[in-house]
Amino acid sequence: MNETIAKLMQHRSIRKFTKDPITQEQLDAILSAAQQASTSSNMQAYSIIGITDKVLRSELAKLAGNQAYIEESPVFLVWCADLYRWEQAAKRHYGEVIPSTTENFIIGTVDTALAAQNAAVAAESLGLGIVYIGGIRNQPDKVSELLKLPQHVYPVFGMCIGVPDQSPLERPRLPRQAVYFENTYKQDAIDSAIDAYDETLSAYMTARSNGKASATWSQSMAGKAGPVRIHMRSFLEKQGFKLE
Amino acid sequence: MNETIAKLMQHRSIRKFTKDPITQEQLDAILSAAQQASTSSNMQAYSIIGITDKVLRSELAKLAGNQAYIEESPVFLVWCADLYRWEQAAKRHYGEVIPSTTENFIIGTVDTALAAQNAAVAAESLGLGIVYIGGIRNQPDKVSELLKLPQHVYPVFGMCIGVPDQSPLERPRLPRQAVYFENTYKQDAIDSAIDAYDETLSAYMTARSNGKASATWSQSMAGKAGPVRIHMRSFLEKQGFKLE
Question: What whole-number distance in Å separates Cα of residue B174 and Cα of residue A92?
Answer without folding.
Answer: 17
